[in-house]
Amino acid sequence: MLFLSTGEKTLAQHMADVNKKLKAGMKVRMLALPADKSKGLGMFDELNGFEDAAALSDALKVRVAKYYGTPLTAFLHALCAPEEMLRWSVIVRRTVEQFITQNLPASASGQAQRAALRFGLAAAAGESAAAKIDEHGPRTIDRLGFRKMMEHGLGDALHTTNIYYVLPEAWKAEIFKGMNISAVNKELIREVSLS
């Protein structure tokens, strides 16, 4: 069974508080990992339109309480369909093996191997769930927006133009970071109307 704890103290710190020694098997079952993405947003990569990490966290809590279990149920139904079980078992096995190969030296201890196996299984579940969303499109990390390509003309006069759609949060927090966004928008509207 896997679980996450958002406690501020690790198991080792809790054990030290009561003068107990942490055993190796306990470390494997309750791994302590810092959850900071080093972007100044705590565990988050981006704020997705929220004012700060606390607001995003609060919104997630509300949505998790409302939709708890819904995605998992759909994922398990798809995963356990008789015609899909063999295919998914191969995908999960390969993903776990690839994760272990990439993240664990061959000389690692048995405890490290067991921990890597658990993380590999979690990675395989996440990759499998994400693949059900769109098995054909590439995955984009830190997406700022979208691009639409349009073809114009015929024959030798055929040319392509790109239209870029920028997500509101990326527009404000990445592209024009530190600038007065209202002033930027007004200036851009003025420039477009002059051209």
Radius of gyration: 24 Å
General shape = extended
SSE string, helix = H, strand = E?
HHHHHHEEHH
**Total number of β-strand segments?**
2
What separation lies between the terminal Cα atoms? 61 Å
Topology:
Layout: H1 11-17, H2 24-29, H3 53-67, H4 70-79, H5 82-103, H6 110-131, E1 145-152, E2 159-166, H7 168-175, H8 181-194
Antiparallel strand pairs: 1-2
Helix pairs in contact: 5-6
What's the short story on this structure?
With 195 residues, this protein is mainly alpha-helical.
Would you give an account of this structure?
The chain is mainly alpha-helical and 195 residues long. It contains eight helices and two strands, in the order H-H-H-H-H-H-E-E-H-H. A two-stranded antiparallel ribbon has the order 1-2. Strand 1 and strand 2 form a beta hairpin. Helix 5 (82-103) packs across helix 6 (110-131). It is extended, with a radius of gyration of 24 Å.
